[in-house]
Amino acid sequence: MWAVARRPKWIALLLLALVLAAVFAGLGKWQLERSIANGKPLPATTETRTTLDAVTTPEKPVSETLAGQKVTVSGTFVAGDTTVLTGRTGGGTYQTVGHLVDSDGGASLPVVIGWSDRRADAVAGGDRLADGQTLTIQGRYYPAESPDQDTYKRAEYSAVAPARFVNTWQAFDDRMYLGYVVADGATAQAADLGTIADRAPSREVQFDWLNLFYAIEWVVFAGFAVFLWYRFVKDAWEREQEDERDEALAAEAAALRR
C-alpha cells in the first residue's frame, strides 16, 4: 500500500491534508485559549472605591469589568422624579430610585436609594432626599437594565432602566449615565429606608465548556483530514489489488482454454 502512497498524486494530497490538519489544529488551539481566558475571574479592582467620573462618562456603556465598581458621586436629587420599583432582589417589597443630577457636569444618574415594605414610605424616602441639598453618594455602579426586563404589574416596574426614565423624569437635559448606582447604608439611612444588600461581583472561576468542546471538535477534524487521505490511498491500493487479481484470473482462464 505504501508504494501507492509514495506516488506524486498521493503525496500532493497528503500535503493538502496536512495543511488542513494544521489549520484545524490552529483553530482548536484558539478555542482552547478562549475557554481558558473566559474562565479567568474578573480583576478585583471593583473593590477599590473611586469617583464615578474617573471610571465612566455620560452615554458610555458599562463594561463587564466595571459592573459592581465601588464609586462616589456628588449631586442633587430632583424633586418629583422619584420612582418606585417592585419585584427586585436586595431587600424589601419596594425599592426607591432617585434622579441624581451630578455636580460636575449636570448629567442624570439613577440611584437606588433603599427599600421599604410600604409603597408610601418608599416614595417618602426619595422625596426626603430631594430637598435641593448637594449630597455625596457612595455605592456600587452597575450596567443599565432594559425596560424589557420589567415585570409590569398594576402599573409597577422592576427594572432600573434609564431608557424608560428619560420619558418619565420631568427634569432631564438629554445627558444620562448608562448605568445606575446602588447606594450604601448611609444614603438609605438618610432617606429613612432599608439598605439594599451589597452585591459584590462574583470572583468564581467558571470554565467555558462550550469553547473547550469546539477545541476538541477542531482536533477531531484535523485527525479526520489525515484519516481521509489514508482511506483514499487504501481504496486506491485495494482497487489495484483487485484489478491485478482479475487480470491474473483472466490470464489463467485464457491459458486453460488453449
Write up this protein.
The chain has 258 residues and is an alpha+beta fold. The protein contains 7 helices and 7 strands, in the order ααβαββββαβαβαα. The protein has helices at 2-5, 8-38, 52-55, 119-129, 162-168, 185-190, 209-257; strands at 50-51, 69-77, 83-86, 94-102, 108-116, 135-143, 179-183. Strand 4 and strand 5 (108-116) form a beta hairpin. The model has no long low-confidence stretch (mean pLDDT 84).
Radius of gyration: 34 Å
The CATH architecture term of the largest domain is Beta Barrel
Largest sheet: 5 strands, mixed, barrel
Order of helices and strands: HHEHEEEEHEHEHH
CATH C-level class of the largest domain is Mainly Beta
Strand order of the largest sheet: 2-4-5-7-6
- By secondary-structure content and strand pairing, the structural class works out as alpha+beta
- Counted by DSSP, the helix tally is 7
Helicity, as a percent range = 40-55%
C-alpha geometry: rod-shaped
In angstroms, what separates the terminal alpha carbons? 35 Å
Poorly predicted regions are none
What percent of residues are in strands? 15-25%
Q: How many separate domains?
A: 2
Instruction: Name the average pLDDT.
Output: 84
Quick one: how many beta strands? 7
CATH third-level topology of the largest domain: OB fold (Dihydrolipoamide Acetyltransferase, E2P)
